[in-house]
Structure to design on (948 residues):
């Protein structure tokens, strides 16, 4: 269990100040995997490093399993070495002058009462968890990127820490390996049962791996929820658009009931979810997910808005189409077997209640 | 449980150590400045006057000395650049074979003390006894000797030859750091090779070349060895020898006011120049970016030019190493210097060696050995502390600390030694009798190489990804354990090289010890110089040969260590050359 209260951190350089954290509060249940998601510069890594004790916030407090490890107000700041954490760094920080085994065994030297043969057993157990047991004697620099990443994970877990911190651990891997490691990482973290905080700027990583996703922007957490809830009920335009690269379509509220509204838009009337009550006639922005749009021959949907395809991009499993409807261009994501081409005239049909409308920002 | 974060033990120790060292350096400069405005320090402090400065500025000898130093340093700079820069280009940019041999030889000539090669060149080109002059006079029936090593040009030539390795190392680093794709881009844009040289390479190299030129000029300006060996007997004084003369006058009781004023006058331009050169280097690095990609740069094919290249290399090595050292050995075997001949062979003996004052020699050797053993750990310890405070803490004023650590680099060693002499005599002596002890020399050397040491440790720490240390902290290691188990092992290669290099510099240092020397702490180089001055050139040569023999193991270890290794450590480790190039040799 991690409880963070009102954490503030400002970087002051000689001629500029940067508010990295602006009063962040957050709690992570024991054994959960929480992801901090946000664009670069949103403060997610600063928050992680503050929990690790590598940064010193100006205000606020951090408690881990009931023990206050940081409190600016009470003048408490437990050094990193005594917070009992495991951390995987973005660069992995594998020590190149040690072997795989020595790297993984390092924390036991300081952390654990386990020594000698049982320590060796514990190290091998962790190496086995990440499938590196056969490379134990290899010099650490002779590992591939993916292996180094797994070694970093083994090292972070070996002393059974209270909290595991992962700082963009997948960002240095190539696309295919990253997909494999997503599942692998979740498996390992779940099997060790440790409370985990994971930092990433990749939406798919966040959605696929976490129990809770906390979306950050400009030093604040703007929304924290389970992945499905976040995807279906984003609380702001920023979160909706950050989770899925979307179309921002202007519209006006026609009528609204609880949690739902019909919106007049250039693409016709769209049934949307709403995060807050909206009055009829008020201007809104619809965050329109490309996968909620389908394109039909005009004859099949006589009431739908009609547009013309400007360009298509074949992605293998999907085809992306840019469709011009009056003044705007809508991006639609269609199944890979779609045979539409540029110049075709199509009817635009939006699936109901899959998108969210937010009050237009003036 | 309340735990307030405080400074850990190591950082506290570093903070105290660097603060103390900084104070010592500032006190040293302060002492010189204070004495320069005191007409008669022996009778206590009085109201500051500018009398000493007036005496220096109206001294005709000082004017001659200044002119001498400028000519001497300019010639040395020219010679050093003419040899060093083409050598660097040959090694870094062409397909000349045998590059590792060349860099080994360049390092060797860097390590040879310049008083040894100065002595060798004196034997070669002295207008009366110089072997080449004698030979030329006989061969071409000349009346006058064609060469005069006693002239400023002659001295500049010797100084330049021994500074060429610094020019080589500094420009080689710049050549290596240059992104070769910039050059290739110009070639593909249709520029001819000489156009690329003129419009791309030279502008890119300009900061490196300029700062290299400033360093060499300053080193030569403050050089003591060559003017002391060649110019002293002839009373051709340059800055360092003149300052030594003022501090150690042969006819009157030493008055420290005048030399202190002279030293103060040197401090401001020296500090300014070094600051400027340093700034330029950092600007230079900004666009001569080291590219992380390990692709082999395109090398210029020399073809038949290889022969010319090797002739150039061979020429330099002959002039800087082979000739002066051979003639030194030859001179040490003869009762008086003469050209090799059957008759000369009959005089060859070890008499000079037998006649050496071995008791004295062994005492000197002992002092030198103690210093060579203790100086490196002290220098590197303090340097690491300075770097740690500078890069791993947010202590206010840490950049000033780094500037202070770099200051000794700007100060000519003879000035440094004088500052310490004055400080020892007027400030410390009443409390702690340090004058004439090996400890005082140890302190002098520690300050003397501190700027070099901090260059090495700064680079080392900068190249270590901070997350490597943070990972150790997170694992539960204290700062001490992190340094011991992670930082030092990863920096070890650079540190070991620096250790040996400092040991060699210490063993061969003449300038720093010459003013602080008494019979109680005399070092080998000082002893040899005294023998040289007292006229027994054959005996002095023998002493030099023995001294070089003692240095040989150290030099060999250094050369073996500095060979590039196929390291299993992928993390890049501090390279030695930029550090060496910033070294202010005496």
């Amino acid at each position: 269990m991690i409880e963070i209260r009102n954490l503030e951190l400002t970087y002051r350089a000689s001629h500029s100040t940067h508010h990295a954290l602006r009063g962040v509060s957050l709690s992570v249940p024991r054994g959960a995997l929480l992801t901090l998601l946000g664009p670069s510069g949103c403060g997610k890594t600063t928050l992680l490093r503050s929990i690790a004790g590598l940064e010193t916030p100006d205000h606020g407090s951090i408690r881990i399993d009931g023990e206050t490890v940081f409190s600016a107000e009470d003048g408490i700041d437990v050094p990193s070495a005594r917070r009992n954490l495991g951390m995987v760094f973005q660069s992995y920080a594998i020590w190149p002058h040690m072997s795989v085994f020595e790297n993984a065994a390092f924390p036991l030297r300081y952390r654990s009462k386990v020594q000698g043969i049982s320590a060796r057993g514990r190290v091998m157990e962790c190496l086995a968890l990440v499938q590196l047991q056969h490379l134990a004697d290899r010099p650490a620099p002779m590992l591939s990127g993916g292996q180094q990443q797994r070694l970093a994970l083994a090292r972070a877990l070996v002393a059974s820490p209270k909290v595991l911190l992962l700082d963009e651990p997948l960002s240095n891997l190539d696309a295919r390996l990253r997909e494999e490691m997503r599942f692998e990482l979740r498996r390992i973290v779940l099997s060790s049962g440790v409370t985990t905080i994971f930092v990433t700027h990749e939406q798919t990583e966040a959605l696929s791996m976490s129990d809770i996703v906390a979306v950050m922007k400009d030093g604040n957490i703007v929304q924290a929820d389970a992945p499905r809830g976040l995807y279906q009920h984003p609380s702001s335009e920023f979160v909706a658009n950050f989770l899925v690269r979307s179309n921002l379509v202007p519209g006006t509220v026609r009528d609204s009931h609880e949690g739902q509204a019909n919106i007049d838009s250039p693409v016709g009337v769209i049934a949307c979810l709403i995060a807050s009550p909206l009055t009829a006639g008020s201007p809104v922005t619809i965050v329109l997910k490309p996968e909620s749009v389908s394109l039909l021959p005009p004859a099949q949907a006589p009431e739908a808005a009609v547009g013309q395809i400007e360009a298509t991009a074949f992605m293998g499993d999907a085809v992306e189409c840019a469709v011009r409807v009056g003044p705007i261009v809508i991006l639609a994501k269609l199944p890979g077997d779609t045979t539409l081409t540029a110049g075709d005239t199509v009817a635009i049909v939006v699936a109901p209640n899959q998108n969210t409308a937010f009050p237009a920002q003036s | 449980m309340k735990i307030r974060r405080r400074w850990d033990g190591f950082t506290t120790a570093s903070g105290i150590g660097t603060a103390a060292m900084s104070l010592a350096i500032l006190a040293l400069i302060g002492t010189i400045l204070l004495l320069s405005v005191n007409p008669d320090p022996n009778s206590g402090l009085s109201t500051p006057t500018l009398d000493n400065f007036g005496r220096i500025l109206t001294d005709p000898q000082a004017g001659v000395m200044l002119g001498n130093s400028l000519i001497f340093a300019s010639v040395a700079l020219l010679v050093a650049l003419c040899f060093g820069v083409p050598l660097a280009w040959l090694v870094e940019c062409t397909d000349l074979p045998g590059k590792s041999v060349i860099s080994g030889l360049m390092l060797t000539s860097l390590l040879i003390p310049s008083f040894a090669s100065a002595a060798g060149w004196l034997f070669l080109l002295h207008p009366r006894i110089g072997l080449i002059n004698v030979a030329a006079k006989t061969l071409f029936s000349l009346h006058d000797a064609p060469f005069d090593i006693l002239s400023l040009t002659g001295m500049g030539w010797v100084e330049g030859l021994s500074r060429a390795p610094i020019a080589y190392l500094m420009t080689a680093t710049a050549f290596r750091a240059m992104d070769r794709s910039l050059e290739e881009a110009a070639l593909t844009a249709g520029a001819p090779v000489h156009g690329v040289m003129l419009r791309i390479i030279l502008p890119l190299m300009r900061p490196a070349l300029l700062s290299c030129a400033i360093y060499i000029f300053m080193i030569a300006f403050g050089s003591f060895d060559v003017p002391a060996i060649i110019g002293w007997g002839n009373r051709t004084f340059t800055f360092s020898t003149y300052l030594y003369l003022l501090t150690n006058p042969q006819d009157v009781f030493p008055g420290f006011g005048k030399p202190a004023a002279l030293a103060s006058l040197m401090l401001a331009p020296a500090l300014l120049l070094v600051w400027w050169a340093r700034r330029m280097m950092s600007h230079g690095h900004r666009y001569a970016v080291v590219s992380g990609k390990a692709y082999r740069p395109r090398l210029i094919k020399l073809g038949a030019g290889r022969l010319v290249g090797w002739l150039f290399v061979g020429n330099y090595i002959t002039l800087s190493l082979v000739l002066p050292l051979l003639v030194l050995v030859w001179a040490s075997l003869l009762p008086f210097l003469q050209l090799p001949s059957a008759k000369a062979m009959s005089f060859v003996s070890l008499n000079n060696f037998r006649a050496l004052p071995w008791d004295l020699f062994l005492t000197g050797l002992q002092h030198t050995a103690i210093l060579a053993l203790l100086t490196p750990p002290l220098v590197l310890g303090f340097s690491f502390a300075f770097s740690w405070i500078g890069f791993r803490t947010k202590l206010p004023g840490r950049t000033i600390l780094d500037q202070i650590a770099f200051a000794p680099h700007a100060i000519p060693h003879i000035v440094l030694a004088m500052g310490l002499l004055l400080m020892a005599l007027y400030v410390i002596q009443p409390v702690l009798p340090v004058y004439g002890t090996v400890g005082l020399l140890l302190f002098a050397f520690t300050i003397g190489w501190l700027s070099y040491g901090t260059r090495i440790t700064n680079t080392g720490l900068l190249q270590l990804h901070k997350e490597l240390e943070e990972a150790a902290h997170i694992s539960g290691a204290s700062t001490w354990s992190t340094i011991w188990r992670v930082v030092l092992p990863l920096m070890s290669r650079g540190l070991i090289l620096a250790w040996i290099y400092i040991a060699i510099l210490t063993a061969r240092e003449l300038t720093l010890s010459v003013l602080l020397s008494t019979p109680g702490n005399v070092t080998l180089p000082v002893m040899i110089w005294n023998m040289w001055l007292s006229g027994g050139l054959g005996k002095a040569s023998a002493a030099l040969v023995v001294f070089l023999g003692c240095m040989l193991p150290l030099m060999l270890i250094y050369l073996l260590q500095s060979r590039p290794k196929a390291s299993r450590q992928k993390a890049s480790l501090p390279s030695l050359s930029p550090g060496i190039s910033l070294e202010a040799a005496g």
